C-alpha cells in the first residue's frame, strides 16, 4: 500500500510539473480565469443582478468545462502513446492503477489550481456585500467534483487513441451528452419508447440539474454521489482500455 | 546455470499479421544475445512480449524466474529496458527523468542520487543534465534512454537498437558499456548492424517473419557462408596455372576458383571441402613447392552474407 501511494505520488508529481515545463500551464490558467470571469460579468450580468452571490459565475461552469476539461484530459494517454513514452512508463515496476490514478489526480489538481485562481471573484462579492460563503464553498466543491467527472471521462477516451484531436472531440461530445441529459431535447428522444424509470435515470445523470442544486447551496448528496461514481466508473473503464491495448 | 530471461513459444498477431510466431529462447547470466533480423521481422514485438508491455496470444516470458504477466512488478524490478527509438518525456531534463525512473524503480533517499550518478557517469551525460531532453542531439537522447535502463543495476537488460543514431565514437562507448556489464547480467540487444554482433554479443539469434531462423555464435553463423575459411592467393598471371594445380592437390581443398584478374595478377581462392581447416596445409604446400605468390590471406564469411542468405528467401526459412 505504501508503495502504491508512493508511486501514484511520483507519477502525479511528474505529470503536474509537466504542465509547467510547457506553455500549457500558463495558457490554460489564464484562459480559464478569463473565460469564467468574462461569462460571469458579461453574459451572467454579475453586476446588474445587484446580489452578493456567485451563481452568475458558477452557472456557466458546466458549459465552460466542455471546452476546458477535455483540453487537459486529451493528452493524458494519447500523448504517451504517440510519443512512445507509454512503453517506458508501463515497463517500470508499477501497476496500471498507479499510472491511471497518478495521471488523473495530477490533471484534477491542475484544474483545482485553476479554480482556486478565480478567487478574485470571491473577494469581489465579499467586498461588495455579504454573501453566504458556505454556499460559495459548496459551489466550488461541486464545480471541482464535476470537473473531476469530465476529466475521468476524458482520460478514459484519451487511452483509446494516440490522436489528441480525436480524444478531445469525442470526450467533449460525451460530456456534452451528459450535460444535456436533463434537458427536454434529450429527454424527448427517450420519452416515446423508454420506460419512465429509464427516462428519469437518464435525467438524473444530468450534470446541469445536479450542479444547479449544488450552487443553490444545498450540499446535495445525489449530485456528489453522481460525480464520484462517474469518476470511479470512468477510471475503471480507463483501466479496461489500458489492459485491452496491451492484449490487442 | 538457470536462465535469467526465458521465452517459451511466444506468439502475437496484429489483425491478420503474425508478428511473432512461436519464439523460444533462454539467456543466461553472462550472455549477451544479439537479436538480428530485417525490419519488420518481429524483433521489437518480441522484446515487448518479453518485457510484458504486450500480452502474448500464446506462450510465456519470465525474467529472473518471474512471469512477466503474472507477477509483472517483481519481473520488472529486475529489468532495464530501452524501448525502440528511446522514447523519453521531451519536456523533462535528463536529471529529472532519471530521478523519476529511479523512484519508480523503488530507490529511495541517497540511493537515488547514487544510482543516477553511476548511470550518468557510465553514459557520459554529465554536460547535458540540466537541459531539456527535446533540445538534445539524437546521440544524447539515446544515452539518456540507456542511462534510465541501467538505473538500479538490473540483472536483465533488454535494449532495442541501443546504438541507432550514434556516431562511431558513441557506438564504441555503448558497446564498451555493454561489454563491461555483460559479466553479471543477461542482456538482449537488437540491432541490424552486424559488426555489433561480432563486437559485443556472445550469441546471435536471427529472426525472420516472427520465427527464429538461426541461433549460434557469430562464428557459427559465419560458417554458413561457403567460402568462410577459404584461402585466397594472389599470383602473377603466368604462374597461375601451376599454383592452381598445386592448390587443388592439397587435401581438404574442394575447389580452386579465380576471383578476379588485374594488373597481370590473378586472385585465386581455394575453397575448403565441408568447412575443413586448410590454412596450414595450403601454407606448407606453398613453402614445399616454392610457389611464387604475392599475397595470401584467409577469407572470413561476412555476417552480411549470412544475414542475406537466411532472411532473403522463403525457401531458406523453411529449411532452417
Question: How would you characterize this protein structure?
Answer:
The complex is a heterodimer of chains A (248) and B (320). Chain A has helices at 2-21, 24-43, 46-49, 55-58, 61-73, 75-83, 85-90, 96-116, 119-128, 133-158, 164-180, 184-191, 196-204, 207-215, 221-247. By secondary structure, chain A is an all-alpha fold. The model of chain A has no long low-confidence stretch (mean pLDDT 88). By secondary structure, chain B is an alpha/beta fold. Chain B folds into two domains: 3-222, Rossmann fold (3-Layer(aba) Sandwich), CATH 3.40.50.300; 231-300, 2-Layer Sandwich (Alpha-Beta Plaits). In chain B, strands 6-7-8-3-9-10 form a six-stranded mixed beta sheet, sandwiched between helices. A four-stranded antiparallel beta sheet of chain B has the order 2-1-4-5. At the A-B interface, helix 1 and helix 7 of A face helix 2 and helix 3 of B.
SSE layout and pairing:
The complex is a heterodimer of chains A (248) and B (320).
Chain A: H1 2-21, H2 24-43, H3 46-49, H4 55-58, H5 61-73, H6 75-83, H7 85-90, H8 96-116, H9 119-128, H10 133-158, H11 164-180, H12 184-191, H13 196-204, H14 207-215, H15 221-247
Helix pairs in contact in A: 1-8, 2-8, 5-10, 5-11, 8-10, 8-15, 10-11, 10-14, 10-15, 14-15
Chain B: E1 3-14, E2 17-28, E3 32-36, H1 43-51, E4 58-63, E5 66-67, H2 72-77, E6 79-82, H3 94-104, H4 110-123, H5 138-150, E7 156-160, H6 168-182, E8 186-190, H7 194-200, E9 203-208, E10 211-216, H8 218-222, E11 231-236, H9 240-249, E12 253-262, E13 265-272, H10 279-288, E14 295-298, H11 303-312, H12 314-319
Parallel strand pairs in B: 3-8, 3-9, 6-7, 7-8
Antiparallel strand pairs in B: 1-2, 1-4, 4-5, 9-10, 11-13, 11-14, 12-13
Helix pairs in contact in B: 3-4, 4-5
Amino acid at each position: 500500500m505504501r508503495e502504491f501511494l508512493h508511486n501514484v505520488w511520483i507519477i502525479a508529481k511528474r505529470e503536474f510539473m509537466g504542465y509547467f515545463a510547457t506553455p500549457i500551464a500558463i495558457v490554460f490558467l489564464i484562459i480559464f480565469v478569463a473565460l469564467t470571469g468574462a461569462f460571469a460579468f458579461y453574459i451572467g450580468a454579475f453586476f446588474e443582478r445587484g446580489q452578493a452571490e456567485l451563481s452568475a459565475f458558477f452557472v456557466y461552469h458546466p458549459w465552460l468545462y466542455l471546452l476546458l476539461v477535455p483540453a487537459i484530459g486529451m493528452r493524458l494517454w494519447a500523448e504517451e502513446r504517440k510519443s512512445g513514452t507509454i512503453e517506458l512508463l508501463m515497463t517500470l515496476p508499477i501497476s496500471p492503477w498507479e499510472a491511471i490514478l497518478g495521471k488523473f489526480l495530477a490533471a484534477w489538481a491542475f484544474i483545482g489550481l485553476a479554480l482556486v485562481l478565480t478567487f478574485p471573484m470571491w473577494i469581489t462579492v465579499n467586498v461588495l456585500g455579504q454573501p453566504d460563503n458556505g454556499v460559495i464553498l459548496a459551489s466550488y466543491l461541486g464545480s471541482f467534483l464535476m470537473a473531476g467527472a469530465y476529466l475521468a471521462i476524458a482520460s478514459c477516451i484519451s487511452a483509446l487513441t494516440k490522436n489528441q484531436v480525436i480524444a478531445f472531440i469525442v470526450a467533449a461530445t460525451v460530456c456534452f451528452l451528459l450535460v444535456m441529459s436533463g434537458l427536454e431535447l434529450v429527454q424527448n428522444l427517450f420519452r416515446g419508447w423508454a420506460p419512465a424509470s429509464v427516462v428519469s435515470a437518464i435525467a438524473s445523470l444530468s450534470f446541469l440539474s445536479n450542479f444547479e442544486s449544488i450552487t443553490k447551496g444545498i450540499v446535495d448528496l445525489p449530485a456528489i454521489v453522481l460525480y464520484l461514481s462517474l469518476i470511479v466508473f470512468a477510471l475503471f473503464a480507463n483501466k479496461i482500455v489500458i489492459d485491452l491495448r496491451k492484449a490487442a | 546455470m538457470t536462465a535469467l530471461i526465458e521465452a517459451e513459444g511466444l506468439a502475437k498477431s496484429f489483425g491478420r499479421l503474425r508478428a511473432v510466431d512461436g519464439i523460444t529462447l533462454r539467456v543466461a547470466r553472462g550472455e549477451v544475445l544479439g537479436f538480428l533480423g530485417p525490419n519488420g521481422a518481429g524483433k521489437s514485438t518480441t522484446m515487448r512480449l518479453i518485457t510484458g508491455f504486450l500480452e502474448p496470444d500464446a506462450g510465456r516470458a519470465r525474467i529472473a524466474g518471474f512471469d512477466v504477466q503474472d507477477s509483472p512488478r517483481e519481473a520488472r524490478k529486475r529489468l532495464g529496458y530501452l524501448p525502440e527509438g528511446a522514447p523519453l518525456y521531451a519536456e523533462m531534463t535528463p536529471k529529472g527523468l532519471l530521478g523519476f525512473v529511479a523512484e519508480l524503480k523503488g530507490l529511495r533517499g541517497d540511493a537515488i542520487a547514487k544510482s543516477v550518478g553511476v548511470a550518468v557517469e557510465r553514459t557520459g551525460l554529465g554536460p547535458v543534465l540540466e537541459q531539456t531532453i527535446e533540445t538534445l542531439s539524437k546521440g544524447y537522447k539515446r544515452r539518456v534512454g540507456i542511462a534510465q535502463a541501467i538505473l538500479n543495476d538490473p540483472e536483465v537488460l533488454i535494449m532495442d537498437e541501443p546504438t541507432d543514431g550514434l556516431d562511431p565514437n558513441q557506438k564504441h562507448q555503448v558497446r564498451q558499456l555493454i561489454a563491461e556489464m555483460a559479466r553479471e547480467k543477461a542482456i538482449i540487444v537488437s540491432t541490424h548492424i552486424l559488426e555489433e554482433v561480432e563486437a559485443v554479443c556472445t550469441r546471435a539469434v536471427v529472426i525472420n517473419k516472427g520465427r527464429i531462423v538461426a541461433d549460434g555464435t557469430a562464428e557459427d553463423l559465419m560458417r554458413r557462408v561457403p567460402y568462410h575459411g577459404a584461402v585466397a592467393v594472389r599470383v602473377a598471371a603466368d604462374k597461375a596455372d601451376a599454383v592452381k594445380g598445386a592448390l587443388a592437390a592439397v587435401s581438404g581443398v574442394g575447389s580452386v576458383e579465380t576471383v578476379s584478374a588485374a594488373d597481370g595478377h590473378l586472385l585465386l581462392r581455394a575453397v575448403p571441402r565441408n568447412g575443413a581447416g586448410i590454412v596450414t596445409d595450403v601454407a606448407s604446400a606453398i613453402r614445399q613447392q616454392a610457389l611464387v605468390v604475392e599475397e595470401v590471406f584467409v577469407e572470413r564469411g561476412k555476417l552480411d552474407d549470412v544475414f542475406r542468405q537466411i532472411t532473403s528467401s522463403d525457401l531458406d526459412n523453411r529449411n532452417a
